[in-house]
From TrEMBL:
Residues 79-101 are annotated as: Disordered. Residues 83-93 have a biased composition (Low complexity). Residues 140-315 form the Helicase ATP-binding domain. CDD domains: DEXHc_RecQ1, SF2_C_RecQ. One of its GO terms (molecular function) is DNA binding. Residues 340-491 form the Helicase C-terminal domain. Gene3D superfamilies: P-loop containing nucleotide triphosphate hydrolases (3.40.50.300), Winged helix-like DNA-binding domain superfamily/Winged helix DNA-binding domain (1.10.10.10). This is ATP-dependent DNA helicase.
Length: 730
């Protein structure tokens, strides 16, 4: 019995322990189920949150667009009202309206002020101008009424007149603060030529000269109407400040003009530390009206300038930035340096034969190399950059101004104060670092109001060159991103993309087909790139899992199947031509499916690609990404319609243009020939079928194709290309 009892006891405890372990097992299995479900719910939740964020962003974009369109509509209605004044039609002085009503503002367009006769007389007799340009009269009247004013007007529109004219119509002198000595010299030379007395003070002024100027400031009989100074002088010269104070007390300091006023703000693109100290002027001389002038300030920059200069609530006049005579175009830059230069050279020799222009480059080294390459191609091109001897710089400037050389190949050092009216083209060999910079630089074209072209070459690797350069700047990446978007976005008019940076709306009508996207709107089609997105993201994921850093270049190459064989097996490679593969990657970066990651060494900064915020969205089967691409015509990358970015395409790389002919559809593409012909006529420099991209079974097409294209084009080849047209630089 005892034994039995013991056995039973053992049995019971065994059963119990089994039960417990069974129960544990059960519990453990359930817990892993729960954990699994939790993970998947969390992942799904994360995806939903991303989708919400994406939709919210879309909502914001659409609301902004809606508001812009509403504003446009309102303005169109306003313009249709018979009572509105025509001379102010280009004004969009929204902030001024807050201080002054529209009617009050329009009063300043009239010519019945006590000074109006004198103003009119000086305009004609001293400045030899027949009439005012939009907003000039209003600015002059406001200044002469003693108002503080910020004048935002596109480069070359005539801001200087808005302080020079009030200066000659007032007692005493106007103090003009200018950032560059060369700007001052230009102005003084011009004023001298029209017999307006002006002097300048800067670091290189002789003691004797400074003494004369200072004495003149407090002499009621002095002829000086304008005194130009650098901001450094104001900041550092106590003598100058004490003289200004004396002049102020004697009512001889009539106006203060701060040229290139955006230099005050770190948010502007040309910040100068000494400008930050100019607030002293308004604090010491509160009764003197201040006029700030700029061609590039956004409203936030202006707000900043207002604080720095201590001008409470100035009136802001903003002229429209739309330069209707400029044609904006983006060209895809060939990664082959020689091909890209040849393309530029061919434009200059054909489209711009004997016309004056500027080629902007990224660095001093590029200025030297690009100009020498252009010279090799018989173009009178000379470099200009900050590291050159000042005498050489002014020699190049002078020769170009007098049309002795055709092209200046310059860094942004060739900037402020360039006032050549007949510049017919501004070509950017490399994209600018922001749209504001691009607008300003390209705006040196067509100051005479005749048509001129602004062409930017958009190169994949350039994006990252600039990106690593601006990595330290506060909003550098954001601004660069906008510039890249300007280049890649063929969804909208180039002008409208620019306009938002100036708080303006330019509609497609305002463009009047003066940009490549408006002109070729029919050639662009939306292409679904979701699948490509997934492939690229997979490569980036794989690299991350192997702790490998991917540069953009490596990413493109890996995707195109050029990486190590082992990796090729693990990823889906693409047959897209290189330019399109690059375009897709840029799109993914812009849309935040990918993001940049910087790495610093003591000598250089590297740019790597990582997964972006929106990468997980691509896991959802319903999520789609698309981009517009050119599907017909000539120009930038052209792909065949209906997203035939596939194995069956035979890309014809023609210059940097790609025309895709689908397999089996060869005959029906006959309509392409006139376009090819046209392209060839314009640009014979380079013709090649990309053999790497040509499937071997279609190789039979290669030679007949070449022959056909050359045959159709030959009767129309420009003679200039055949002739030896060598010009000796000098
Ligand atoms: N009312 C006018 N009619 C004709 N030409 C004018 C008029 N006003 C100014 N100009 C000319 O326009 C050119 C550019 O003027 P200005 O140098 O003042 O431009 P800006 O607006 O200061 O440009 P930037 O931003 O480059 O300094 C000058 O050659 C000037 O003589
Ligand atoms: Mg100016
Ligand atoms: Zn347009």
């Amino acid at each position: 019995m005892n034994e039995n009892h013991t056995i039973t006891q053992h049995l019971t405890s065994w059963l119990l322990s089994e039960q417990i372990s069974l129960r544990n097992m059960d519990y453990g299995g359930r817990s892993s189920d729960v954990q699994g479900e939790l993970d998947s719910v969390e992942a799904e939740l994360e995806l939903v949150e991303l989708q919400i964020a994406d939709l919210l962003q879309k909502q914001t974009e659409l609301t902004t667009r809606k508001n812009a369109l509403l504003q446009e509509l309102e303005e169109a209605c306003d313009a249709a009202q018979p009572s509105s004044s025509s001379s102010s039609s280009s004004s969009k002085s929204s902030r001024a309206d807050a201080v002054m009503s529209k009617q009050e503002m329009q009063r300043f367009d009239s010519t019945d002020f006590p000074w109006s006769k004198e103003v009119e007389q000086h305009l004609k007799d001293s400045f030899h101008l027949s009439k005012f340009r939009p907003l000039q009269l209003r600015a002059v009247n406001l200044t002469l009424s003693g108002k503080d004013l910020f004048l935002v007007m596109p480069t070359g529109r005539g801001k200087s007149l808005c302080y020079q004219l009030p200066a000659v119509c007032s007692k005493g002198f106007t103090l003009v603060v200018t950032p560059l000595v060369s700007l001052m010299e230009d102005q003084i030379m011009y004023l001298k030529s029209i017999d307006v007395s002006a002097v300048m003070l800067n670091a290189s002024s002789s003691k004797e000269h400074a003494k004369t100027v200072m004495a003149g400031m407090t002499d009621p009989k002095s002829p000086f109407k304008l005194v130009y100074v650098t901001p450094e002088k104001i900041a550092k010269s106590k003598l100058l400040m004490s003289r200004l104070e004396k002049a102020y007390n004697a009512n001889l300091l009539s106006h203060i003009a701060v040229d290139e006023v955006h230099c005050c703000s770190q948010w502007g693109h040309d910040f100068r530390p000494d400008y930050k100290l100019l607030g002293i002027l308004k604090r010491q001389f509160p009764k003197v009206p201040l006029l700030g002038l700029t061609a590039t300030a956004t409203s936030s920059v202006l707000k900043d300038c207002e604080k720095i200069l201590c001008v409470p609530q100035p009136i802001t006049l903003t002229a429209s930035f739309n330069r209707t005579n400029l044609y904006y175009e983006v060209r895809i830059k060939d990664s082959d340096i020689d091909a890209s230069i040849s393309d530029i050279a061919s434009l200059i020799k054909n489209r711009y034969k004997d016309q004056s222009g500027i080629v902007y480059v990224f660095s001093q080294k590029d200025a030297e190399s690009v100009s020498s390459e252009l010279q090799k191609r018989d173009i009178l091109a000379y470099p200009y950059h900050g590291n050159m001897d000042p005498n050489d710089k002014s020699r190049v400037h002078r020769k170009w101004t007098s049309n002795k050389i055709q092209v200046v190949v310059a860094t942004v050092a060739f900037g402020m104060g360039i006032d050549k009216p007949d510049v017919r083209f501004v070509i950017h060999h490399t994209i600018s670092k922001s749209i504001e910079n691009y607008y300003q630089e390209s705006g040196r074209a067509g100051r005479d109001d005749s048509p001129a072209d602004c062409i930017v070459y958009f190169g994949f690797s350039d994006i990252f060159r600039i990106s690593t350069m601006v990595v330290m700047e506060n909003v550098g990446q954001q601004k660069l991103r906008q510039m890249v978007d300007y280049c890649q976005n063929v969804d909208r008019c180039r002008r409208s993309l620019m306009a938002v940076h100036f708080d303006e709306v330019w509609d497609d009508e305002g463009c009047n087909q003066m940009c490549d996207t408006c002109r070729h709107a029919k050639d662009f089609t939306s292409v679904d790139i979701t699948q490509y997105g997934r492939q690229v993201v997979q490569i980036v994921e794989l690299a991350a899992s192997m702790e490998e850093k991917l540069t953009p270049l490596k990413l493109v190459e890996a995707w195109m199947g050029k990486g190590p064989a082992k990796r090729r097996k693990m990823i889906q490679t693409t047959t897209l031509p290189r330019l399109q593969a690059e375009a897709v990657i840029v799109r993914l970066l812009l849309q935040e499916y990918l993001r940049e990651d910087f790495s610093f060494t003591p000598y250089t900064t590297y740019f790597y690609v990582k997964l972006g915020r929106k990468a997980p969205l691509l896991k959802s089967q319903t999520h789609t990404v698309s981009m517009k691409m050119r599907t017909t015509g000539s120009g930038s990358a052209v792909v065949s319609k209906g997203c035939s970015l596939s194995l069956q395409t035979v890309p014809l790389v023609f210059n940097h243009d790609i025309i895709v002919i689908e397999e089996g559809d060869f005959k029906t593409q006959a309509q392409l020939w006139p376009k090819l012909n046209q392209r060839l006529y314009r640009n014979i420099s380079f013709f090649q079928i990309s053999q790497t991209l040509l499937p071997s079974k279609l190789l039979w097409l290669y030679f007949p194709l070449c022959a056909l294209v050359l045959k159709t084009a030959s009767p129309r080849l420009p003679l200039g290309d055949m002739n030896e047209n060598r010009r000796v630089p000098g």
